[in-house]
Design brief:
By secondary structure, the protein is an alpha+beta fold. The protein has helices at 64-73, 97-112, 119-127, 135-138, 174-179, 190-193, 201-204, 210-216, 218-229, and strands at residues 2-3, 6-18, 24-36, 38-43, 48-53, 81-87, 142-145, 150-153, 162-167, 234-237, 244-248, 262-264. The chain starts with a strand and ends with a strand. Bound molecules: 4-diphosphocytidyl-2-C-methyl-D-erythritol 2-phosphate and adenosine-5'-diphosphate. Adenosine-5'-diphosphate binds next to α1, β6 and α2. 4-diphosphocytidyl-2-C-methyl-D-erythritol 2-phosphate (SUD) is lined by residues 10, 23-24, 26, 28, 94, 96, 99, 130-133, 147-148, 174-175, 178, 239-240. InterPro entries: GHMP_kinase_C_dom, GHMP_kinase_C_sf, GHMP_kinase_N_dom, IspE, Ribosomal_Su5_D2-typ_SF, Ribsml_uS5_D2-typ_fold_subgr.
């Protein structure tokens, strides 16, 4: 069986406080977008993981799909499976690609192996693999809080707009991004701000990571500014970067970006 794990963007992101476990409490909105990997799981005589597409850094054994398999196997009698991942979502981009694979893998394994896990149980497994993995179990727009792994569903539909994602050739590590941010309690409520017309978001909806990440990587800031110059109604870095999304009324002409960056249209 094959599924197509999709990426997410963060619309607004406030790092609220440092927690006693070293993580941070945050407030953000996760919004699913149309950039996909392909993930196949079939019953087999031995456990095997293969991949194709974009280069996956690190050991195959550290892939979140295999980690999810071993996590669930601790509590359930799982048969061996063949896993194939075709990687298309840019890696380390703030798009949650690895987390998407983990969340979709858990759902897929649940079906292929007929484990019978509830949505809540799948979310609990996902949470143990990474802070934003659990989002991909429900995969609907949510206001996320605490470690980014507790959710409240929100009504947010950007289907009437044209979304573009630009990925500059820069890697920002998530841990590095958290290290550079000064936590502050937000004065305004992100949920209320996102109920206003998109035209008003520019003045109200911020990603706290941008300040320090832009200082270290002015090229990412330049991409955001260029998207506004091309007519974006709203543009921001997603998560800990380096990808930047733009919300437009119609398809923009971004041909000149395509040499230096990866550009995804109509996401
Ligand atoms: C920043 C965000 C925003 O949505 O997304 P990305 O930009 O990575 O996609 C997430 O918080 C990333 O979540 P995720 O990528 O699952 O993080 P994890 O693997 O659990 O943690 C990586 C590292 O980030 C830091 N971390 C992560 C989440 C959190 N709430 N507080 C933290 O301080 C910790 O230093 C941790 O060791
Ligand atoms: N299935 C996977 N896809 C991508 N990265 C993965 C995967 N499994 C583990 N990783 C590791 O997670 C790291 C960051 O993952 P990714 O989700 O792409 O970034 P981000 O958290 O910025 O959205 C990568 O450096 C990679 O080593």
């Amino acid at each position: 069986m094959i599924v197509f794990p999709n990426a997410k963007i963060n619309i607004g992101l406030n790092v609220v406080e440092l927690r006693s476990d070293g993580y941070h409490n945050l407030e953000t909105v996760f919004y699913p977008i149309k950039i996909h990997d392909a993930l196949e799981v079939v019953l087999s005589d031995e456990l095997r993981f293969t991949s194709s597409g974009n280069f996956l850094p690190g050991n195959a054994a550290d892939n979140l799909c295999l980690k999810a398999y071993h996590l669930i196997k601790k509590e359930h009698d799982l048969p061996p499976v063949n896993i194939h991942l075709h990687k298309n979502i840019p890696i380390g981009a703030g798009l949650g690609g690895g987390s998407a694979d983990a969340g979709f893998f858990i759902k897929l394994l649940n079906e292929v192996c007929e484990i019978g896990l509830s949505t809540e149980t799948m979310q609990n497994y996902a949470r143990q693999l990474g802070a934003d993995c659990a989002f991909f179990i429900g995969n609907k727009p949510v206001f996320a809080f605490e470690k980014g792994d507790r959710f409240e569903e929100i009504q947010l539909d950007l289907a009437a707009y044209y979304l573009v994602l630009v990925m500059p050739p820069i890697h920002v590590s998530t841990a590095e991004a958290y290290g550079g941010v000064k936590p502050v309690r937000s004065e305004s409520d992100l949920r209320s701000a996102l109920k206003l017309p998109v035209e008003e978001w520019k003045a109200l909806v911020e990603n706290n990571f941008e300040r320090s990440v832009f200082e270290h990587h002015p090229q990412i800031k330049a991409v955001k500014e260029a998207l506004y110059q091309q007519g974006a109604i709203y543009a921001a870095m997603s998560g800990s970067g380096a990808s930047v999304f733009g919300i437009f009324n119609k398809k923009p002409d971004l041909q000149k970006f395509e040499q230096a960056n990866q550009v995804f249209y109509d996401v």
